[in-house]
Design a protein that fits this description.
Order of helices and strands: EEHHHEEHHHHHHHHHHHHHHH
Radius of gyration: 25 Å
Distance between the termini: 74 Å
Low-confidence stretches: 1-16, 428-432
Largest sheet: 2 strands, antiparallel
Strand content: under 5%
Helix content: 55-70%
Oligomer: single chain
Number of strands: 4
Number of helices: 18
Structural class: mainly alpha
Mean pLDDT: 82
């Protein structure tokens, strides 16, 4: 056991109760974890397409898919249809990049799961098995690097299609990704300051002893969540594929499974973003009210419980993604850019300075990290949230429906319209 920032951190190789597994056992279990995660991930992504339709139907008070196997076999029917459809290759496309783009948009989201821990360590007769495919010491930096590659698939799809609408969608996506990736990366710096490490297991362990980061770093969670919506091209940030403006955006010229792979990539990115939010801000797989899942002695039932808790958190955030899609309208493009550069990025920078200053002040005051440390940090975050949203913003910035015109000017125009209606009622009605 070692201590980082006052929190105990488990050293895997030093655990006397559970010796490390041998090289061959480690290799076999890694293959098993790869197959299981890939299977659950792909089946889950397919079922999320059904969940999206059912949730949208529930929100709109109508029936969703209910014909094919009472709705449960609808993803299988969609997959069969996509396999049976004709693969079109329009004239003038760059064939290698045209085929590569859908694959490149999906692979980064799947690859990121290699370093995301999804459960407490499980004891076996061969030794302790960590519930993560590859427990990299720089796992968080790996995720930031690999997920940023997903934009290449969208940009290449738009450019290689030889279509003006697809190109505009690809350019929009590149600008959107660059704008919000910076804010997303900046929002995670306070997490690393608090955990003192870039390992995801260390971040989960710190939250087990010091409270969830959503309480300690509320503003960082808000920035990360908004940036996650923009990174996954979900409403209200689906400008790259705005159907009413760009036909279908960057995948206008695609058909059959290549077309379907873009949607699979979108849901895969949703699941990955949900897993990251659960890991970074909501304690990950940590089982509350016990320390056995962190420092041992480990047990199989505790490992299964931790996996169930982690899956429940992921499903909650996936539901939030779908809920927001069918609730909020789309941003205008100037609002999208202004929110990223004029609000999110400055807020992230100021918040880094604030959290670093508070941590230095608490350290200088000799307050140990624990109960009072978390309470003070949470109180400061609550005050920042009230200042930011209740006093400074008041619904003007974080809203897709606001305009640049001052409210007094809007009221003046309304009064002018009323005066014109009184003077010329027939002409006004005819104009309308």
């Amino acid at each position: 056991m070692s201590v980082v920032h006052g929190f105990p951190v488990l050293l895997q190789a030093a655990d006397p109760n559970m010796p490390p597994v041998s090289g061959m056992v480690f290799f076999i279990f890694t293959i098993i974890k790869l197959v299981v995660i890939f299977t659950i991930y792909m089946v889950g992504v397919a079922m999320l397409t059904l969940a999206e339709r059912k949730i949208s139907a529930w929100i709109q008070d109508r029936h969703g898919p209910n014909r094919v196997g009472k709705g449960w076999l609808q993803p299988a029917a969609d997959g069969l249809k996509n396999f049976m459809k004709e693969e079109t290759m329009p004239a003038g496309v760059n064939k290698p990049l045209f085929v590569l783009a859908p694959i490149l948009s999906f692979i980064p989201a799947l690859t990121a799961w290699c370093v995301i821990p999804f459960g407490a360590p499980m004891p076996t007769r061969w030794g302790r098995i960590d519930m993560v495919v590859a427990d990299l010491p720089i796992g968080f930096l790996f995720i930031l690097a690999i997920t940023s590659l997903g934009v290449y698939g969208i940009v290449l799809a738009g450019w290689s299609s030889n279509n003006k609408y697809a190109l505009l969608g690809g350019l929009r996506s590149s600008a959107q990704m660059v704008s919000y990736e910076i804010a997303m990366g900046m929002s995670t710096i306070p997490i690393l300051l608090l955990a003192g490490n870039v390992s995801l297991n260390s971040i989960i362990n710190q939250q087990a002893w010091g409270g969830w980061n959503v309480v300690n770093l509320t503003v960082a969670f808000f920035i990360f969540m908004v940036a996650a919506f923009a990174e996954t091209n979900r409403l209200p940030f689906d400008l790259p594929e705005a159907e009413t403006e760009l036909v279908a955006g960057y995948h206008t010229e695609y058909s059959a499974m290549k077309f379907s792979l873009f949607f699979i990539a979108e849901y895969a990115n949703m699941v990955t973003a949900s897993a990251l939010m659960a890991t970074l801000f909501f304690g990950g797989w940590d089982v509350p009210f016990t320390a056995r899942d962190n420092i041992g002695p480990f047990s199989k039932w505790l490992s299964l419980l931790s996996i169930g808790i982690f899956l429940a958190k992921i499903l909650f955030f996936v539901f939030v993604f779908m809920w927001v899609r069918w609730t909020l309208p789309r941003f205008r493009y100037d609002q999208l850019m202004s929110l990223g550069w004029k609000f999110m990025l400055p807020l992230a920078l100021v918040y880094i300075v604030l959290i670093a200053s508070v941590m230095l002040g608490l350290s200088a005051a000799g307050i140990p990290e624990g109960g009072w440390y978390t309470a003070i940090l949470g109180s400061i975050n609550l005050g920042v949230m009230i200042l930011l949203f209740a006093i400074l913003d008041r619904g003007r910035i974080i809203s897709p429906a606001y305009g640049r015109m001052h409210p007094r000017e809007v009221e003046r125009l309304r009064q002018l319209d009323k005066q014109l209606e009184k003077r010329h009622p027939i002409a006004t009605e005819g104009g309308r």
